[in-house]
User: Fold this.
Amino acid sequence: MIAELYRPGTSLLHRWDPRAKLLLLPMVLAAFFVPSDPWPLLALAAAVVALVIVELGPSQLVPPLKTLWPILALILVLTPPFHRTGPAVLGPAGLALVTADGLRFTAVLLLRFLGITLGFFAIVRTVSLDDMVLGLRWFRLPYSACLVVTITLRTIPTLAATWRNVTDAHRLRRDVSTGRPRLVQTYVPVLTSVLIESVKAIPLLAMALESRGFGRRNARTSYAGLKQGTSLLPDVLALAGAVLVLFWPLLLVR
Assistant:
């Protein structure tokens, strides 16, 4: 089974040159890692959310948020008690359970995590793996490194699909004692089945790598090619303007 996060479309983000989007991604990530107050990071995260909504549709926010909410909930619950500096916001007299600095640091972590995840999601959702590899190769990234990126991005949705298939299969099995479908599942047999399926896929991956000549030292060729010439420069300029807009809240507070 071959799965990937890319979804075909006709949005402006889909039509932009993959090389330009690969240049944009580290700039956006750098913007979220710049030390800043929560308000500029909120503006950056809101811009990324708006980009996903406008270009991909509101429904595309559901998959990443559905995956992220347990981590965001843990950050929200566990971070404030470990940052006790600043004026107390919540707690009995003499005991500050939640402080202003703790809330500030929690907001920064939440916004960074959300913005970085949605930024990655917007790129992998609108760039096919073939175009991504060709774009990385255009930047002179070694083929082995490009292959690692490809395998990683294909493994994530493949494991998710395997998990869903195994879970459905376990639910269809009938309880020996009652003869009815099992409603309550334990994670141990599901994880075991997913592990077995993953191990069984290793020989197929090895044969695919061997058929592609992985490890050979000779020069590689490709049947596919990226758009060349006039499309790259306008897209880079347009995305540079978008990055400037994203960085503007940070520039205002400096």
